[in-house]
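F.,

This is the one I mentioned.
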């Protein structure tokens, strides 16, 4: 097998709890996923990324792992998982798991032992610090989901660090026994047959051992970045992980790297350094952040988006990009970056086109291929995510109006991505026979898989075509990226060029018709239209073309 197989792959992310329920308990499960493999094979994807399915009390929906070796029984058994691997592999689909090793659940036996005493094998598995002389926490770091990042434990008369919920204590990567235990666990899953890992907040594992206070100017919930993102030993640890585990398996590795710029990303992904294949950066996710971070109603600017994505395309020349619009932590792409009303279908296809023709490995989050939009829940009580629930408290404490709170929760809650997958237009959406763990989107009667498969102009078939194009034209994998008309106010266009081919991608972010000037050098060559998101489209690339609302065009040339 070509060791760079992941460069040619398209990844589909499954949120297991919400994909397909096979036994009527309202929770998606492994048997459910198995039953939908043919759907994914038809779409054409190469890899499935599964969010965590390990044993967990689900305080943070599985990102709080109590036992790395056990499958959470709500999803099924280890045999079900092996069956899933086998069936997927038979269809040519690989499977990567989530690796959550910055922290565990407080229910993990390592932590249960660690918190008992300052002595013993597990005493230093987590990050314990003495209180300050006045009893206060060791420093001023806040945690992602609100409150201090430190929690006091009387048995040890010490605080432990948790960058996320207090039920998610951070592991102490300085301890070689911790690292050995993690590598052993990773080898275990590779031996079972998985094809790689998505590594949760991997940029946070190495802490500055001085544990410096953060400047008060930083937002409280993320001020821990000062001493924890891209920390002093992170590259050493990942290179060690590579030598101990990864290099022995032809795997796909993608690190989730909060607070990481393109220069740092190159260190993680340059193949010579032998760390990871690629990382998820957040630069395009931050374009609409405000005073309360993600929970803002600011709208992104296309020019900023173009600048950020282009920078990553160019800077990661030696490394490799992961390309994504959405995931289980983000709102729906068409609401955030497109128009989820009149031009929902057109803009969803445009976004897919823009991203899938770039250099890197594209990730599709479940439902994105249907053009799913944010969920118009009626009341705030329908939201279940720990981040949303805590943020509502924070916003109320800051005296924000209920109207504002509703608006930003609607725009940014992670639950927008987590509602059950709509397989058909019936009351329970073909997802379950029981009561779903999280309410359905009221959109289900209109936006669902049966509808998508029956409509030859659906977003689904557009994604299917985009995936097929990657298989056919090598320039999509290896071509150099260059921005066209960098000052255009509403059109994002670029070319991809290799020795034999050129690709021209033109995408409109406007709700109106706009003129686009095609550079003369491109007009001279004979070009073929590969794909458009309208049923009728210009036959040839002329020096001036009129782009319709959210129109997206892909041309191909053999100069
Ligand atoms: O998310 C990490 C991350 O960067 C979060 O801070 C993200 O920005 C957050 O969801 C805010 O919207 C990963 C997982 O993807 C997420 O689901 C987990 O909650 C988190 O790590 C802790 O494991
Ligand atoms: Ca179930």
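My design for it:
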């Amino acid at each position: 097998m070509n060791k760079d197989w992941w460069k040619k792959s398209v990844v589909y992310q499954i949120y297991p709890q919400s994909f397909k329920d096979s036994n009527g308990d309202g929770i998606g499960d492994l048997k459910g996923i198995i039953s939908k493999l043919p759907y994914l094979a038809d779409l054409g994807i190469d890899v499935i990324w599964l969010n965590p399915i390990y044993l967990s009390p689900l305080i943070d929906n599985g990102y709080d792992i109590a036992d790395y070796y056990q499958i959470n029984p709500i999803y099924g058994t280890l045999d079900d998982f092996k069956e899933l691997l086998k069936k997927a592999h038979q269809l040519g689909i690989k499977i990567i798991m989530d690796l959550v090793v910055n922290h565990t659940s407080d229910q993990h036996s390592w932590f249960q032992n660690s918190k008992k005493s300052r002595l013993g094998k597990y005493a230093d598995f987590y990050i314990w610090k003495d209180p300050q002389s006045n009893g206060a926490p060791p420093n001023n770091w806040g945690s992602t989901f609100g409150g201090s990042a430190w929690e006091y434990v009387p048995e040890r008369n010490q605080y432990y660090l948790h960058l996320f919920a207090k039920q998610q204590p951070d592991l102490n990567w300085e301890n070689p026994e911790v690292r050995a235990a993690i590598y052993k666990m990773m080898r275990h899953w590779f031996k079972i047959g998985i094809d790689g890992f998505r590594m949760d907040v991997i940029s946070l594992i190495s802490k500055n051992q001085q544990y410096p206070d953060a400047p008060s100017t930083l937002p409280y919930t993320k001020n821990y970045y000062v001493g924890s993102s891209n920390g002093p030993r992170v590259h050493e640890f990942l290179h060690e992980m590579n030598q101990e585990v990864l290099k022995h398996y032809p795997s796909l590795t993608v690190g989730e790297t909060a607070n990481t710029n393109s220069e740092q990303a190159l260190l993680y992904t340059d193949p010579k350094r032998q760390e990871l294949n690629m990382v998820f950066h957040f630069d395009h996710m931050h374009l609409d952040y405000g005073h309360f971070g993600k929970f803002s109603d600011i709208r992104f600017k296309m020019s900023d988006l173009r600048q950020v994505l282009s920078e990553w395309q160019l800077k990661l020349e030696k490394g490799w990009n992961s390309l994504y619009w959405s995931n289980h932590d983000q709102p729906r792409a068409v609401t955030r970056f497109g128009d989820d009303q009149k031009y929902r279908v057109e803009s969803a296809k445009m976004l897919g086109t823009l991203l899938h023709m770039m250099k890197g490995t594209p990730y599709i989050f479940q439902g994105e291929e249907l053009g799913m939009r944010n969920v118009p829940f009626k009341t705030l009580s329908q939201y279940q995510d720990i981040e949303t629930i805590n943020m509502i408290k924070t916003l109320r404490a800051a005296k924000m109006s209920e109207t504002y709170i509703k608006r930003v929760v609607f725009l940014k809650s992670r639950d927008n991505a987590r509602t059950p997958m709509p397989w058909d237009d019936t009351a329970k959406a073909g997802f379950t026979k029981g009561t779903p763990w999280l309410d359905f989107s009221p959109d289900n009667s209109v936006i669902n898989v049966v509808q998508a498969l029956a409509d030859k102009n659906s977003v689904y078939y557009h994604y299917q075509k985009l995936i097929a194009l990657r298989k056919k034209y090598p320039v999509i994998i290896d071509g150099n990226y260059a921005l066209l008309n960098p000052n255009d106010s509403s059109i994002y266009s670029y070319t991809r060029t290799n020795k034999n081919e050129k690709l021209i991608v033109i995408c409109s972010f406007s709700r109106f018709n706009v003129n686009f000037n095609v550079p003369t050098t491109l007009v001279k060559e004979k070009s073929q239209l590969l794909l458009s998101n309208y049923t009728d489209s210009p036959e040839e690339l002329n020096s001036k073309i009129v782009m319709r609302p959210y129109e997206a065009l892909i041309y191909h040339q053999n100069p």
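The longest strand covers residues 491-497.

Talk soon.
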